[in-house]
Structure prediction request, 809 residues.
Amino acid sequence: MPSMDAISRNLMLDSLREYAKRRIPYDLIRDLDEKNEFPAEILKEMYDRDTLGVHLLMIPEAYGGVSGGTYDIYRICEALARIDLGIATGVFATFLGTDPLNVGGTEEQKEKWLKRIASENLLVAYAATEPDAGSDLVNLRTRAEHVVKNGRIAGYRITGNKQWISNGGVADMHTVLALAPGGPSWFIVEKDMEGFSANKHEDKHGIRLSNTAGLSLDNVYVPAENLIGMEEGKGLLQAQAVFGYTRVMVAAFGLGAGEEAVEQAIRYSQQRIQGGGPLSDKQGYTHKLIVPNYVKLEGARSYIEYTALRLDSGEHGLQTEGAIAKYGASEWGNKAADDAIQALGGYGYTKDFPVEKIKRDIKITCIYEGTSEVLEMTIYRGRWQEHLKSRGRYYLDMADRLDELHAKEPRCGAHASALALRALGAVMEECRLQKLTRHQHVTFKLGRLIAAAETAAIFSTAAGAQKYAETVRFDREGWQAMARVFAREAALNTAMEGLALVLGAADSGNSLADAVNIEAVQAEQKGMVADMDLVAAKLKQTFKAK
Amino acid sequence: MNIVVCVKQVPDSTEVKINPETGTLIRAGVPSIINPYDHFALQTALELKAKHDFKVTLVSMGPPQAKSVVQMGMALGADEGVLLSDMAFAGSDTWATSYALAKAIKKIGKVDLIFAGMQAIDGDTAQTGPGVAQQLGMPQITFCERVEVDGRRIIAHKQIDGGHEVVEARPPVLLTMIMHKDYTPRYPSFLSVNASLKKPFHTWNAADIGAEPQYLGLKGSPTQVDKIYPPPQREKAAMFSGSGAEGMARIMQIMKAEHFLED
Prediction:
């Protein structure tokens, strides 16, 4: 679905924030976190169509929803993550659980179920993971067997166990992946069906406001019309079709929670006087704990927006892009939250300050909806194909476009991004020539390098654009400085780590120093400290102490 | 009855800072909100609409992004929205703004009640509402906190120094609203935001409302802002933690040291 107009989107965001301000204060969140309790009443209110109706974003207007696009959903997910990642996960689970219907449901199924989800405020769960089938769904054990009446398939009997299901113990309906005779397929299972039960709510490290439970399905009978799409064997395709999109949502969680943690640290640092002045004025503090993290997250934001807008314009799949968006936002968000505890010192280590909880919560974004390692593999696979198909030109062509941008906009980091992309192209080509991708370590590491270099390129492109997105909270000078800091680091890391990777894996010792253009990458580092000073000043100006 | 509510988009007052060098407001990156007094006026109008099935039309004047407050009002229940947007309006003071709003209200047609906030939190002049009444030659009741309608009787409860006054009027009348202290502004649900897109919304320029250029903008404004400056900062307060008794003891000690109290 294309995204809605900016005014409507921002009115919805304002309503969500206003609701949270009134109904979900930190003391309540802290209490629920301590008790490991799912806030059923809050979720019901958030789904209530007269109060908020946040779940309606996922539902097309024809079925009683508001037809949100990926960009809208990204913005709402980011805002939810800034409130509480557990509550955000509860909402996300409904989004995810609704997806198989949106993607693969027949018109009649959409008419029935999407309308019910919209009007009855149903909590939904997405039940794919099993004790022995997490990232690798090929090992699916849950079975759906035909129940034949009068010579035709009247229904299915589903038996198996599901694990780590968000909303598992509280959802009104579940979309369950099971192995039918014709292959993996999605089924709609309602909570009161005979033989269906949810196990205990897990005692988790973080997102403790999100209900997570295993499910037991013991010969659960579902009528044939509950097979999504009315065709067996489409389950994995239906699941994969939305990865680009669902990973953008989790990326928005990493972004929102991560930036929230850093912003709290920035506000704190202006009041905390140490060694004769506020911490916010000390490079030893800002240039280690604040600036690098915020810059990375703004890079992740630009990549999320780039992917969301492409999906909204009608492109399908974008699995590699979704993976890059989620990988960056979750890994960098996790690091940012860790550093935010450090930035608050002893206070950060207590539960009186939300950064401690954010750090526990945000870790999940590196795990669910594709672990970081699965994403490294996905990113490598997607781009390795491009590298081969283009005979090594993929990143070189992209670098040419960045150089063209640099000629017009010399201050958006495009030159450094082009250096990162060229170094990446050279490293990948050397890996091909020396057949280094036989090492799994090389492939995963390439995934990491690709994520950073591509994000640098997209960040520079966004910072070089004439008009900025509605989400940019800095002036041109500040945002371009952030893009430069990101791009310089990406160029240096791609060149140095790429070089080390090849040298470490190859039999022969050909140095790549010239191919990755180490001299130019080093020269590009000039001005880094001054840019970090500028970014620190802009952050302080934007996030003033309360 | 037909009700018009005048609303203004203002910068969130808690975020606004003044540039000490240029003396102008720093608006970049500051979120915009509906003027809280206008929000209360709108809510009052919508309560009357719910009770009596009146029609509520919103009018605002501002740059294109001010559409946001009109759409929000429609999401909350108003039936129709008008935004006056034209470079010719830029720089208008309260008099020129009242002129434009009055012209727009005339174009809307038969209007029985006009609501406006008592004042906007950015300018704090409290002149625009009364100005509109003056331009339309309409009676006005200011500082209202509650309004009832009984047939053709408009009963306004207004605040006055040291008490309350109940005033009756016949339509048409313009009312400016203060805020109840226990008032909580409503916010729209996602569904009502979406539904507001389907309500009639018009953007009118100066020509559309038949406004004469010499009465608009800077040249149509009898008042010009000479300078804006922040009030001098008060000295920093000292904060004490501990029990009430300990705090009191510290305060007594300081007051004695500063000779506010005798030993």
Q: What stands out?
A: Helices of chain B lie at 36-52, 67-76, 94-108, 128-136, 190-196, 244-257. The longest strand of chain B covers residues 140-150. Chain B has six helices and 13 strands. Chain B has a mean pLDDT of 91.
